[in-house]
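Below is how a single chain appears once it has passed through the pipeline. First comes the sequence as given, then the structure the pipeline wrote out for it. We keep one example in the README because the format questions we get most often are answered faster by looking than by reading.
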Amino acid sequence: MNEMSRPAQAHETQQRRTEMRVRPTGPILPPSNIQGNALIVVIAIMAFLACLTLGAVSMVRATAAGWQSQISREITIQIKPAEGLDMDRALQQAKDLALGFVGTKDGTIMDDGATARLLEPWLGTGLNLEDLPIPRLVIITIDEQNPPDFAAMRDLLALELPQAFLDDHRTWVDRLISMASTTVMIGTGVLVLVFIAMVLTVVFATRGVISGNRHIVEVLHFVGAESSFVAREFQKHFLKISLKGSAAGSAVAAVLFALLGVWQANSRATPESDQATALFGTFSLGFGGYLGILTTMIIIALLTTLTARITVMRTIDEIDLIRSDPAKSDGLPAS
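Resulting structure:
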């Protein structure tokens, strides 16, 4: 009889074990609340502004580098009209003299039509260049890595062709480099200010959220939870919030630059596109620009997480200080 009851007892024990299920644990912090949603919006806005500034700085730097490279690839020989000067022969002679130097690649003589089009915005159409003392130009393409000896070329032109003047665009290149460096410095300064404002905003917003959940920190600390465990739980919570916010702001900035690039590509040779290109350059960020946006998103998420950890550890220290001496609670700053 006992042997027959053993299987029944075993089955009953197994059934009782099956019914005894461990209740699934929930997150220590509420997964979503008003403060958390507000912090996501704040982080998204600051991430958008930071990525917008970073993209603008990248655009200016790329545009200035393109201008500098384009100017550095060419030099110009200007020949002024003079009494008894055969202009066509002088242009060809200047071109041959320049191409005789090491570091030059090609030469182009600007004909009457090209010169007239160059002066058209100021003097109008239908120009007769023979009636006007307008200089003629020879454009020489040079090797940027191995440029020719400009001083020697200038001396030779002055000796063989006194009406020729060599312009190596050094003045324009130096001004362009100075302008680009100043613009990049200003943009970098704005980016630093945006990051500082973001950190301060996140600090106050994070302290506000933790202040609203201070009772959770106190309960966990009173039941014996280690400070590192409490801080780690808050870190996970704020890491999710910061990733959502920074990803949203960065994605909006990246999409904005992509849409502007598509608009600029589809509206070339229009007044709006030409004006935007003249003011801001091309809106194409390239791989480096989008990589910078991704890096900015990660930095914002890490700053928010680090801020949460520091704030939680300070809150725990304040709780320990109050427990050791309640009279010191009056001197503590409000969380």
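The chain is about 70% helix and 5% strand.

See the next section for the split statistics.
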